[in-house]
Design a protein that fits this description.
Elements (H helix, E strand, L loop, with lengths): L6 H10 L3 H17 L21 H12 L5 H6 L4 H10 L16 H17 L8
Length: 135
């Protein structure tokens, strides 16, 4: 049961090489491998994702909630607190904050909503009072 090069290949390498000391080292190493028999490697420990989880203090959590509810996107607290976006979202959800849809408040606005808003603005302009009407 041989591993690596056969003896004829070693002889051939010796023919084209002037480094017989390397060939002798190779032959000795090959004998040691054959004598020691097959080895089984130890199973590697299971891989974990990422490093140590960041523990937020109450003030950091409050800061994230305050900024998000004031209108900032999740990107700002993500960068400021060195967290993944999904972690920021998790912190917000765990504290009862409703996550806004991506793209801001107008993304899910219907055509009817826009027409209603336009009609309300026209009424305000027509009255000249600057009030917002009934809400």
């Amino acid at each position: 049961m041989g591993m690596g090069l056969a003896s004829s290949e070693v002889d051939m390498a010796g023919t084209y090489s002037n480094r017989t000391d390397l060939l002798q080292d190779f032959a000795e190493l090959r004998k040691r491998i054959e004598v020691s028999g097959p080895h089984r490697s130890k199973p590697s420990p299971p891989k974990t994702s990422g490093g140590r989880k960041k523990q937020l203090g109450p003030s950091e959590t409050a800061d994230i909630i305050t900024k998000y509810t004031a209108g900032t996107s999740m990107a700002q607290p993500k960068v400021e607190h060195h967290m993944a976006k999904r972690t920021v979202a998790k912190v917000l959800r765990e504290n009862g904050v409703v996550i806004r849809p991506r793209g801001g408040p107008t993304k899910n606005t219907t055509r009817t909503d826009l027409l209603d808003s336009l009609a309300e603005l026209r009424q305000q302009i027509g009255r000249g009072d600057g009030s917002h009407g009934s809400q």
